[in-house]
Amino acid sequence: MALFIVRHQHAAERCPAADPQMGAMLLNHLSRSNVRQHGVEIQGEAVVQGEHTLYLIAKAHDEGGLREFMRPFQMAGSLEIYAASTCTRVVASGGCAATMPTSELVPALDPVEACQQAIDAGLLVHRAHPLNCETPIPELVGGVVMPNARFYVRSHFQIPNLDPATFRLTVSGCVERPLNLSLRDLHSMPSQTLTATLECAGNGRTLFHPRVEGEKWNLGAVSTAEWTGVPLAEVLDRLVYARRRGRSCLGVWTAEPWRATQDRIVSSAAFRLIMLGILICCWPMR
User: Fold this and answer.
1) pLDDT digits over 258-268, tens only?
2) Is residue 99 part of a domain?
3) How many Cα atoms within 13 Å fall on the side-chain side of residue 252?
4) For every residue of 60-87, which 3-state class applies, written as one string?
5) Residue at which a domain ends, from 84, 101, 118
6) pLDDT at 185
7) Which of 88, 99, 171, 203 would suit a FRET pair with 231, their CA atoms being 20 to 30 Å apart?
8) Is residue 97 part of a domain?
9) Domain encompassing residue 22
10) Is the pTM of this model over 0.90?
11) Would you say residue 175 lies in a domain?
């Protein structure tokens, strides 16, 4: 649904509120049950004292439907409807006149919803899009495991919105036959739970002297969670390698695309670390 600002004004001698019956009719028209029947949501309303002017913040499928709902007010005076945005949407878009960035390669979370959820959870937002926000310092004191909603967020691009039913983990390279594992396949493998802390390499960057480029983190770009999943060594044991002596490093391509080239981010890990069992393919994070 789209967001709108509605402005209604009437002459003092035609004030509907001065007539008890007319005023009651308008109140019933603005009731939640009636508004819902018209496919409208009223987010807020206010009358300017002594100015005979009403402002509404409303959501509707289109301006035509909202204008039809506001017809009783238009009969009493003027009616103006403006397309609007929330502050979160404007900042995430990069300006009042900017359009919201989209991801063409993978389905992505709505940047506005992701940012608003972070704000509502009490995270300190450094950048609305890509979303970067840190855990408040008081939340880090006195506990170990951080609730998911207050776990710091570090993003470079869009946040992928993957479908569990269609997700596949593909392992290929110097192997005779690549693996293509569903989430159900991973669930059927032996799993383990680790308590681990993640910290952005730039945590505390605002305290650096001289100043350096990068996200201006305070000290909250760090959080701890319980991670459950299949040890990566368990997955790799199911492979038949084409060249065992060439098996020295594993590259990981993420779902998050690089904005300019649309290439995936790549990280790597040495096989000797993988076989220690400390790297896992996680599905729940608590």
Assistant:
1) 554 445 555 66
2) no
3) 15
4) ECCHHHHHHHCHHHHHHCEEEEEEECCH
5) 84
6) 94
7) 203
8) no
9) 2-84
10) no
11) yes
